[in-house]
Amino acid sequence: MNWNFKKSAELYGINEWGKGYFKINKDGNVDINPEKNKCLDLYKLTQDLIERGIRSPLLIRFPDIVKKRVKLLSDCFDNAIKESKYKGGYSGVYPIKVNQQKHLVDEIISFGTSHKLGLECGSKPELLIALSVMKTPGALIICNGFKDVEYVETALLSQKLGRNTIIVVDRFVELDIILNAAKKLKIKPHIGFRCKLSTKGGGKWVESSGSKSKFGLSPTEIVLGVNKLKKINMIESLELLHFHIGSQIPSIQLIKSSMKEGAQFYSELCRMGAPLKYLDVGGGLGVDYDGSGNSDSSMNYDAQEYANDVVDIIKSICEEKNIHQPQIITESGRSLVAHSSVLVFDVLGKQQVAKDKLYFKVSKTDAKIVKQMYEIHNDINKDNYNEFYNDLVEKKRDCLQMFTYGVLTLEERAKVEDLYWSTLKKVALFAKDKNEDLYLEIKKDISDTYFCNFSIFQSLPDSWAIGQHFPVMPIHKLNEFPSSQATIADLTCDSDGKIDVFFDSETSDVQNYLNVHDINENEPYFMGAFLTGAYQEILGDLHNLFGDTDAVHITITDNGNYTVDHVVEGDSVEEVLSYLEYSKQELIENIRLASENSIATGKLTRQESKLLLKHYEQGLTGYTYLAEQESD
Ligand code: PLP
């Protein structure tokens, strides 16, 4: 098959979802390309890192991409503001919950300094991070989420450290907590109200919006809140109005509708006498995970269009109502960090249901039905495949029944299975151009399973939990035709630990297999799961006790070179077990005592005991994932 990297790029849609940050190079490897003169071969990088002792699966973070994303969003708003002559300004805040890893947060703050990028926190622990790490003069710290007295008092006191902290009332009871704490500490609070919009966000996070959403004040509560603040002469403290209609909004129409409704809330509050300075439009700016522009995992707009619409809508409503044009705040998280992390993992082996060749002969003594299936296998061709396919399915069903009734032997059943799958492979070939539905149906059934060294639950939890699409593809061999089709199975003992829905950029539809290269025992085959920088790391769990993977931060320098800025070692087995209260000493001691007993009763030799304890101790200090065998 005449194949090259350009065809691979089309097949995997990398030029669509990669947004220029990911490409395929002439060597057939994936390139990381954050900007024009910075390019790094991901496969070569993986090999280098593994030579250094960093283990697969490994998460590679690229600060250069974070930097580009921070700048992009800021530039888009600057352009929109300039273009429409908007009188207010713009500030972004990064919601820490999207990825709280220290090195990443440090990078975001540092890249955001010139744009005054602030932080949003959704809980007390996140507030404690934000207060400590946010030192950019003038940058905002927006406090969302459930709040108790301690949370509120800490936020208020932080003003005395020079932090620009705004406490958003997410639930009506929080207003009293803030007012009481402010009175006690004699600190003027900076208060925000989060309003519940009736506009629903759409996509997978639709429940974040609408009048039954978890957070936000109803129109009645907002009116009560304003009146209360006026009554106690504290309306000056109401500085911000916030709304958030959910993450990953796929459609610009929904964004526009929410902006219109949110801006009306803003104008009404101004009319009621609230001296609002800020309008915080929340997160929701999408990431194009499949490149289609037309699904819940994609978006039908780009960052510039988003910024233009946000600014234009707010401006026109302010002009119409003749009110002050506020500082616009966004809480975009996903869009800033999703592109910056790639999970690289190796394929450990495969399960092939449909073998290319038959490794047996049908003998005279085999049951008649087995011989008939063998004839179908041999005689099927492009003219009869439809009829023969129906016969095949019927005979397979009969065979399974015959086996259940004890009429067919296990050897015969084994032949039937192989004949069935192998013939199905032929049917797929014949049906390819003639019967699309049958072809797709069979392709799904005959695809192989590639067993991969990672845990979906730890590294791609949204893929399992909500069917979120992430681009997955080989990171090398892309000049070679991917002749196999496979689903991806992870290391966990869970039938849900798999990826079997992939976006097909040729048909712009989903399919149940990924085109992959055949694997070769002596040559590692590496795949990448891309756009994993948002939410996945912190949502990941320890199912089957697979812990955090090794992670590295790579800065790309000129001429294809790079620096390894940070290596964050993944969890060892010992660490994971300690989360569950198992102590290493106790575990080892139990095995030692059991070994002594077995030595005493002659069941175990001293050498075997030594080997067992060696493996046990090494196992505890080792990686939770499958390790490459080190030669002794
Ligand atoms: N702000 C709030 C209040 C949120 O709940 C979220 C997440 O849903 C965000 C911001 C971040 O949204 P995104 O990652 O879609 O930008």
Provide tags for this entry.
ten-stranded mixed β-sheet; 632 residues; 41% helix; binds pyridoxal-5'-phosphate; 22 helices; alpha/beta
**Percentage of residues in DSSP E strands:** 15-25%
Name the shape in a single word. globular
Number of strands: 23
Ligands in the model, by name, code or SMILES, are:
pyridoxal-5'-phosphate
Continuous helix count? 22
Computed over alpha carbons, the radius of gyration is 30 Å
Q: How does the major sheet shape up?
A: 10 strands, mixed
Termini Cα gap: 42 Å
As residue ranges, the low-confidence spans are none
Helix content: 40-55%
Q: If you average the pLDDT, what whole number results?
A: 95
| Coarse structural class | alpha/beta
Q: How are the secondary structure elements laid out?
A:
Layout: H1 5-12, H2 14-17, E1 22-24, E2 30-35, E3 38-41, H3 42-51, E4 58-61, H4 63-84, E5 90-95, H5 102-112, E6 118-121, H6 124-133, E7 140-143, H7 149-158, E8 164-169, H8 173-185, E9 191-194, H9 219-231, E10 238-242, H10 252-271, E11 278-280, H11 303-321, E12 327-330, H12 334-337, E13 341-351, H13 368-379, H14 385-404, H15 410-431, H16 436-446, E14 448-452, H17 456-459, H18 461-465, E15 472-474, E16 484-489, E17 498-499, E18 502-504, E19 509-511, E20 514-516, E21 526-529, H19 536-539, E22 550-556, E23 562-568, H20 573-579, H21 584-600, H22 606-621
Parallel strand pairs: 4-22, 5-6, 5-12, 6-7, 7-8, 8-9, 9-10, 10-11, 11-12, 14-16
Antiparallel strand pairs: 1-2, 2-3, 4-13, 13-14, 13-21, 15-21, 16-17, 16-20, 18-19, 22-23
The protein binds pyridoxal-5'-phosphate (PLP).
Pyridoxal-5'-phosphate (PLP) is lined by residues 95, 98, 120, 144, 208, 244, 247-248, 282-285, 331-335, 534.
